[in-house]
Amino acid sequence: MLRRALLAAPLALAVRPARAAEASVTIDNFVFTPPVLTVAAGTKVTWTNRDDIPHSVVSAAQPPLFKAHVMDTDETFERVFDTKGTFPYFCGLHPHMQGTVIVT
Amino acid sequence: MTEHLDRRHALSCMAWAGGGLLWTVVGGVPRAGLIGSAQAAGTGFSFAQVSDSHIGFAKEANMDTKGTLESGMALVKARKPAFVLHTGDVSHLSKPAEFDAAAAILGASGFDTHYVPGEHDVLDEKGTAPFIERFQKRQTQGTPGGAYYSFDANGVHFVGLNNVVNLKAGGLGNLGAAQIAWLEKDLAGRTASTPIVVFAHIPLWTVYEAWGWGTDDSSKALALLARFGSVTVLNGHIHQVLQKVEGNVAFHSARSTAFPQPAPGSAPSPGPMKVDAGKLRSVLGVASVTVVPGQGPLAIVDTPLGA
Ligand SMILES: [Cu+2]
Description:
The structure holds 2 protein chains of 2 kinds.
Chain A: H1 2-15, E1 22-28, E2 31-33, E3 36-39, E4 43-49, E5 58-59, E6 76-81, E7 85-90, E8 98-103
Chain B: H1 2-17, E1 21-26, E2 29-32, E3 45-50, H2 65-79, E4 84-86, H3 96-108, E5 113-115, H4 129-135, E6 149-153, E7 156-160, H5 177-188, E8 196-200, H6 218-225, E9 231-235, E10 242-246, E11 249-253, E12 285-291, E13 299-304
Parallel strand pairs in B: 1-12, 3-4, 4-5, 7-8, 8-9, 9-11
Antiparallel strand pairs in B: 1-2, 3-12, 6-7, 10-11, 12-13
Helix pairs in contact in B: 2-3, 5-6
The structure holds copper (II) ion.
């Protein structure tokens, strides 16, 4: 436990600013809000499902760059976006639900 | 022409009359009738459709999905069908305990049950594998995600399709090229007079695109079915009775045993509809289908769990 923490600390510092920015996306009524989220590189994005039906977050890239395990009501998925670019995603259960993270 | 119009009229009247679906094949063509009516009690063999049991769901819309599935199976049992088709969303989150509980209730009925997966049944990291292992004796071997198969009963050819995997961003349900190629081969040697019953989770007709209620490549499957005189397509997913007759194809979606969903476009989202506890059983149900020898369509009867 201790060894892992010692190893992880310098790595985290090297990759991210000391206080990582955070942003969030909510899911209500089968809609990602905001549908387009623009963040600075290094930002941690958290999705929260507020519906009473499960949803997921799957990268629309081929092959997918990220894939959340299914989120039941009030469950969350987090991902740190370190690379600049445009990252479209959708819900793996309800693919008409779509969103985009733009990293600048 | 007249016959076609009459059939459509009869189908819609009967479907809206109740909540359970009883399918009857008369002379190879599916026909709808009310459960308990003389029509449905004809000489054909019948099978039942159960759908969207969502075992594991326990929220305001229904705190007891096991209890409502048990009620649905009691209705099915009373009809003495030859077997049961389950059109998916057996579980809510694909958890082993949910599969166990569903298998216990469905298994206790003693009926041979043929399943296709819903999108809620393939949420495990291993995709369709746990569902296939638990519920599908006849999946098409050697095809990744191949949770589809066919079988024959009483002269009717049954095709179970999987349209809930490899969904594309912005898309609807999906069959995929491999499954369509398999379907073409499966139907190839069959005479046009063979009655066909296709069952899948998501509708194979576009019910409401904005809510994803349709299947991207269903037209490819329907083209392969076009030469058959009688095609009946059964689905779940939308938790309500809806139907459409197009040429020789009758489409029918069944009620859920777990919770109702709103009519297309009538609510902000397709999420579970909350109704008064006393009213819940009137909007849940199962279906029976009877196949009657002679000329005429299969009879589908939707029966609600309660008044
Ligand atoms: Cu979703």
